[in-house]
Design brief:
Layout (H helix, E strand, L loop, with lengths): L12 E7 L12 E8 L13 E8 L15 E6 L6 E6 L5 E7 L2 E8 L9 E8 L4 E8 L6 E4 L12 E8 L2 E8 L5 E4 L3
Parallel strand pairs: 3-9
Antiparallel strand pairs: 1-2, 3-6, 4-5, 4-7, 7-8, 10-13, 11-12
C-alpha cells in the first residue's frame, strides 16, 4: 500500500525523518529513521517501511497471578536485537491480566528483559534468543517473576537527626540478571527498597 505524506512550512536545514512503528491502523510496520536529510525548498523523499513481527507473552507470579504495581501498572517488557548491521528494539507493558504484545519489530533474534512494576515485591527476569519473523507473532511464553527481597533502614545525619528527601538505590548481580532497587527516605529518615 502507498500512503502520501507532506510536511509544510519547514525552514531550510538538516532534519531527521522518522516513521514510528505501526503507522497504519496498527498493521505492524518497522520504524524508519533517516538522519541529516537536507531540505532546501521542496524535497521529495519516499519512505519504505518493512512488514514487522511481534512478540507476545504473559507476566505472572509463581502462583499464576498477574503482576501489578502499587499504582495499578503492569510489568515493563523490553526487547533488543542486533539486526541488519544495526539494532532493533521494542517495549510493552503487561495488562491487568498479565498479557503483552510487542509490535513493530524487525525480523531477528531478541533478548527480552522483564522489569517489575514500581512498588511491587518482585524481581526482574530475562530470556534470550526469541526469534521474530516478518508478519508473524512469536509467543515468548510465560514469564514468572520471583518474589524479591528488600532493604530497609534509616538515614541520619551526624547528630542522629533524620535526613529526609534522600533517594537511594542498590544494584548487583543475582541469578544471572542485573538486580536493582530504589527507595526514598520519608520525613522520619526511614526507607524501604524493594524488587531485589
Amino acid at each position: 500500500n502507498s500512503y502520501p505524506y507532506q510536511a509544510v512550512s519547514v525552514p531550510d536545514g538538516a532534519y531527521t525523518l522518522s516513521v514510528p512503528s505501526e503507522p497504519v491502523n496498527g498493521a505492524g510496520y518497522t520504524r524508519f529513521y533517516e538522519w541529516g536529510l537536507a531540505v532546501s525548498g521542496t524535497v521529495t523523499k519516499d519512505v519504505t517501511v518493512e512488514e514487522a513481527g511481534a512478540i507476545s507473552g504473559k507476566v505472572t507470579d509463581v502462583e499464576g497471578n498477574p503482576v501489578i504495581g502499587q499504582y495499578g501498572s503492569g510489568a515493563n517488557i523490553s526487547a533488543y536485537s542486533y539486526v541488519y548491521g544495526g539494532y532493533s528494539s521494542g517495549y510493552a507493558y503487561s495488562d491487568s491480566s498479565g498479557n503483552f504484545t510487542m509490535k513493530g519489530l524487525k525480523a531477528g533474534t531478541y533478548d527480552i528483559s522483564v522489569y517489575p512494576p514500581y512498588g511491587s515485591d518482585f524481581a526482574q527476569t530475562s530470556r534470550t534468543s526469541i526469534s521474530v519473523t516478518k508478519g508473524a507473532t512469536t509467543s515468548a511464553g510465560n514469564f514468572l517473576l520471583p518474589r524479591a527481597g528488600r532493604i530497609a533502614g534509616r538515614v541520619t545525619g551526624d547528630g542522629g537527626a533524620a535526613v529526609a528527601g534522600v533517594y537511594l538505590n542498590a544494584s548487583g548481580w543475582a541469578y544471572g540478571n542485573n538486580a536493582y532497587g530504589w527507595g526514598s527516605v520519608d520525613s522520619q529518615g526511614n526507607y524501604v527498597m524493594t524488587g531485589l
